């Protein structure tokens, strides 16, 4: 099974601590081009040196910013590959799925399902409150965004899924030999890393319910499906469709999207609705399509491995 693939007598929990540091270090190395670009703008072009993340994000043309920011995830994924291969003596496939190969049909189904839902949801909001949106479509910048985003955003989301729902989930399973602790811990860590997003500053910490709840949803579909394929498709669709459809001056990325949202953000039913309504509906759809069963055992059961605890 999926979690058990990372458990053996040599794969101690301390290795995951070291591996996490190495992956984070690789991510920092990937941020060097952005840092150099900022210094160049400041020293050569005499642009005011940014003191906030928002100023960094708006210092360059948005497609260039997207490229520079996403480089850190490319480096992090390479770091993950080497950590898994040489520190844990595993294959990247083993931290992705219990199947003999990646199931691309699962990724595609999840991607299309959430992409269609995201587009329909936006259209519903747009036709209810069209005055809050401004047409922003410019052909050439949008095409560049589409091409770059279609490559870089899935790399970003895949890196996060491989790290959280794959690598760290197996790591915590090594520590506790159960399934509920890896599920909860990876969800909390995943959600907590969004605390510095500008959306949190605008809406307050209540939006953390959405971020942690989304992490929990992705963890559940990973454990129930014995692989991260569904999480890969969902996460890629969520970020890519969002980047292409609508941007705002308070979101993480300002992109050459089709629309600009001018509304003042507030945390309301849109924070709770996905957690209590939409995600359960998706779980139902996935469970019927992939014949999920034994929910309690797969989400909270113990891992029976004849090896001592770390």
From TrEMBL:
Example GO molecular function: endopeptidase activity
One Pfam match: Rce1-like
Membrane-spanning parts: 21-44, 64-84, 107-127, 139-159, 180-197, 203-223, 230-247, 267-286
Gene Ontology BP terms: CAAX-box protein maturation; proteolysis
Domain CAAX prenyl protease 2/Lysostaphin resistance protein A-like as annotated: residue spans: 142-241
Keywords assigned: Hydrolase, Membrane, Metalloprotease, Protease, Transmembrane, Transmembrane helix
Coiled-coil residue spans: none
Protein name: CPBP family intramembrane metalloprotease
Species this protein is from: Flavobacterium hydrocarbonoxydans
């Amino acid at each position: 099974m999926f979690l058990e693939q990372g458990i053996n007598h040599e794969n101690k929990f301390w290795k995951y601590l070291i591996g996490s540091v190495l992956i984070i270090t690789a991510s920092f190395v990937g941020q060097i081009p952005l840092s150099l670009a900022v210094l160049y703008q400041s020293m050569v072009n005499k642009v005011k040196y940014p003191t906030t993340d928002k100023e960094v994000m708006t210092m360059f043309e948005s497609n260039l910013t997207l490229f520079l920011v996403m480089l850190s995830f490319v480096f992090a994924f390479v770091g993950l590959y080497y950590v898994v291969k040489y520190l844990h003596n595993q294959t990247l496939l083993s931290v992705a799925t219990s199947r003999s190969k990646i199931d691309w049909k699962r990724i595609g189904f999840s991607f299309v399902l959430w992409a269609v839902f995201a587009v329909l949801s936006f259209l519903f909001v747009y036709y209810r409150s069209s005055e809050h949106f401004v047409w922003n479509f410019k052909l050439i910048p949008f095409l560049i965004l589409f091409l770059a985003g279609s490559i870089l955003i899935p790399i970003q989301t895949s890196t996060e899924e491989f790290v959280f729902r794959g690598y760290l989930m197996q790591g915590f399973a090594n520590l506790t030999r159960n399934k509920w602790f890896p599920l909860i811990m990876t969800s909390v860590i995943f959600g907590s890393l969004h605390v510095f997003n500008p959306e949190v500053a605008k809406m307050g910490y209540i939006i953390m319910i959405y971020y942690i709840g989304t992490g929990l949803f992705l963890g559940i579909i990973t454990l129930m499906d014995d692989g991260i394929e569904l999480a890969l498709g969902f996460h890629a669709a969520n970020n890519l469709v969002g980047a292409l459809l609508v941007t705002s001056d308070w979101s993480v990325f300002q992109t050459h999207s089709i629309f600009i949202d001018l509304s003042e953000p507030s945390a309301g039913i849109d924070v709770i609705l996905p957690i209590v309504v939409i995600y359960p509906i998706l779980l139902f759809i996935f469970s019927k399509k992939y014949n999920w069963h034994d929910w309690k055992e797969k989400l909270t059961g113990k891992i029976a491995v004849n090896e001592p605890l770390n």
